[in-house]
Design a protein that fits this description.
By secondary structure, the protein is an alpha/beta fold. It contains 19 helices and 30 strands. The strands form 8 sheets. The protein has an 8-stranded mixed β-sheet with strand order 12-11-8-6-7-14-15-23, with helices on both faces. A hairpin with a 2-residue loop joins strand 26 (about 505-510) and strand 27 (about 510-515). The structure holds 5'-O-[(S)-butoxy(hydroxy)phosphoryl]adenosine.
């Protein structure tokens, strides 16, 4: 039977083989490494038609018992979480497993006092402060379903998410620190709650002493509630297939959808993938720079590391404050051994010069990781050479909010490193490339749409409140396959290179946006008649947002209008979705049936206007010349 820990290439190969040939007994063996209140009586039931996916059926567990209680005896005094503040002058905080257990239990007791019960959804809108970790785990403790919303999202984006998942309780803070700035948070929640009549309670953490309005009977200070709650809390018994969390992500159509993950399978895969991709050792300090508002933070700041009894660093700040050496200073300060970040961060630090790196030793580093978008070769080499000093393996981890955990990646120190290639699938993962008809493309040196043909434990179960949307989005494009939305290339040795999205999703600094979502936001501005958004290559962000906009008659096509439109996007989504370029046009290239030909707009935005392809089916081919001529 396969070992939980993969220690060398032949372990990987035999585990992979077993996981394909006998997936159920393979995952049985892996799942036995966790603590279950009652074992499962069937490993897997699935079909990709409806879809209906169940793992570890009738197994009972609580993921926080596995993240916390299980470690108390052996690792009670081991540091679970190191929290590093935005300002390097503020003291960092350390929480042992025993302390974290207590913090989580106390937060759980507060939630119970606020009326939260098993199955209730709780919205967490907090910056990267320790209470974000406590709150997330506290929900899991009592069987409430957490929906963490990144604190950079705007009022409208927050309100949409609160309403879609029917949250009645929100956990937030007065404000947040971001580099040299302080930003109010509670006031955003107040405005969102005004749009969400079902919200009953708001729990507020005091982070920056920002003056806030507290609504009697609705709003409660965390520090006041803390004074009277107990520090133990029974871990709610959960079924494997009970919901653990909802996390919203953008797709090619409509509003962001709530990806649902369940307790058992997610737990099994989070710990297994964390352990093996990063080759975590008991004494390692591990740091993932993501925000817990994204799936990377869920799985690889909180659940994965805590399941394995690791020491995980949580960072409140930004890579460039007080200067672009901040990441490297934190690595030295906490003797970080494993460092996991995004290509966009690497590219921006690369641009500020290597002197900021040379000021630090970085000798503690043993392994590096990358996530969020394809890492270009230049960034790969810079990261490997200047941060890893050429001696640390660099794993490029491909996965998605929907996959719950890393799917295709090297295993640090075990796999062959190939710049810009994600690598081989993890055990249990069966990728397949298909053509536009859904026909499998076999062999090596081939390219196609990336799908997965067999379930894995942490895969998406549904989109909250709308199962049909889940089916259409992921399971209806190609029969009996999970469709990722990415294109990929397969080389020799089952090695994959991810090319990027093939749908109308753009990846800006590792964040996903649907072009339709940004267009909808832009169109809220009264001056806008119509808009079309595409991605274009951006040196730092990976992709930038390029918007073509038709303004109402008599509106001046000036920077003032541009600023107003940008403000509209900030209001409706958040700063992270600001268009980088806005070109005013008199028309958009449409087919006779009224469909915008994005292919042409994409080419123009990319600056590739020599080969615009066939424009003969356009209603008004002349508009293309106008747009190409006015390109920014
Ligand atoms: C999309 C998923 C879960 C990771 C954080 C983003 C792209 C992610 C890689 C990588 C190439 C990558 C894909 C994917 N992506 N990691 N290592 N190499 N592309 O999660 O917001 O759900 O986005 O990010 O296009 O589909 P997400």
């Amino acid at each position: 039977m396969a070992n939980f820990r993969i220690q060398n290439l032949s372990d990987y190969e035999s585990s992979y083989r077993e996981s394909i040939e006998q997936p159920e007994s393979f995952w049985d063996g892996i799942a036995k490494n966790y603590q279950w209140q009652k074992p499962w009586d069937k490993t897997l039931e699935w079909n990709f038609e409806t879809p209906d996916i169940k793992w570890f059926l009738n197994g009972k567990l609580n993921i926080t018992e596995n993240c916390l209680d299980r470690h108390l005896e052996q690792r009670g005094n081991k540091i679970a979480l190191i929290w590093e503040a935005n300002d390097p002058k503020e003291a960092s905080l350390r929480f042992t497993y025993r302390e974290l257990h207590q913090k989580v239990c106390r937060m759980a007791n507060i939630l119970k006092e606020l009326g939260v019960k098993k199955g209730d959804r709780v919205c967490i809108y907090l910056p990267m402060i320790p209470e974000l970790a406590f709150a997330t785990l506290a929900c899991a403790r009592i069987g409430a379903v957490h929906s963490v919303v990144f604190a950079g999202f705007s009022v409208n984006a927050l309100a949409d998410r609160i309403q879609d998942s029917g949250c009645e309780v929100i956990i937030t803070s007065d404000g947040l620190n971001r580099g040299a700035k302080q930003i109010p948070v509670k006031s955003v929640v107040d405005e969102a709650v005004a749009l969400c009549p079902d919200v009953k309670k708001v729990l507020v953490v005091n982070r920056i002493n920002w003056p806030v309005h507290m609504e009697t009977g609705r709003d409660y200070w965390y520090h006041e509630m803390l004074t009277h709650v107990g520090d133990t809390c029974h871990a709610q018994t959960m079924d494997s297939e009970d919901n653990l969390f909802i996390l919203y992500t953008s797709g090619s159509t409509g509003k962001p959808k709530g990806v649902v993950h369940t307790c058992g399978g997610y737990m099994v895969y989070a710990g297994y993938s964390f352990q093996n991709v990063f080759q975590y050792n008991e004494s390692d300090v591990y740091w993932c720079t993501a925000d817990i508002g994204w799936v990377t933070g869920h799985t690889y700041i909180l659940y994965g590391p805590l399941l394995q009894g690791a020491t995980s660093v949580m960072f409140e700040g930004v890579p460039t404050f007080p200067d672009p050496g901040r990441f490297w200073q934190v690595i030295d300060k906490h003797s970080v051994n494993i460092f996991y970040t995004a290509p966009t961060a690497i590219r921006s630090l690369m641009a500020s010069g290597v002197d900021h790196v040379l000021a630090y030793s970085l000798h503690s580093l043993k392994a590096l990781g990358s996530v969020g978008e394809p890492i270009n070769e230049e960034a790969w080499h810079w990261y490997h050479t200047h941060i890893g000093k050429g001696r640390c393996p660099l794993v490029d981890t491909w996965w998605q909010t929907e996959t719950g955990g890393i799917m295709i990646s090297g295993l640090a120190g075990i796999s062959e490193l190939k710049p810009a290639h994600a690598g081989q699938p993890l055990p249990g993962i069966q990728p397949i490339l298909v053509d536009s008809e859904g026909k499998e493309i076999e062999g090596e040196g081939v390219e196609g749409y990336l799908c997965v043909k067999f379930p894995w434990p942490s895969m998406i179960r549904t989109t909250f409140g709308d199962h049909e949307r889940c089916r259409i989005n992921y399971f209806a494009t190609y029969k009996n396959l999970y469709f990722t939305g990415d294109g990929a290339r397969r080389e020799a040795n089952n090695m994959y290179r991810i090319i990027g999205r093939v749908d109308d999703v753009i990846n800006v600094s590792g964040h996903r946006f649907g072009t339709a979502e940004i267009e909808n936001a832009i169109n809220q501005n009264k001056k806008v008649i119509e808009s079309a958004v595409v991605g274009y290559p951006h040196d730092i962000k990976g992709q930038g947002i390029y918007a073509y906009i038709i303004l109402a008659e008599g509106t001046s096509q000036d920077n003032h209008s541009r600023d107003e439109i940008i403000e509209t996007v900030v209001e409706h989504i958040g700063r992270i979705a600001k268009p980088d370029k806005i070109q005013f046009v008199s028309g958009l290239p449409k087919t006779r049936s009224g469909k915008i030909m994005r292919r042409i707009l994409r080419k123009i935005a990319e600056g590739d206007i020599s080969a615009l392809g066939d424009t003969s089916t356009l209603l008004d081919p002349l508009v293309v010349d106008e747009i190409a001529g006015g390109r920014l």
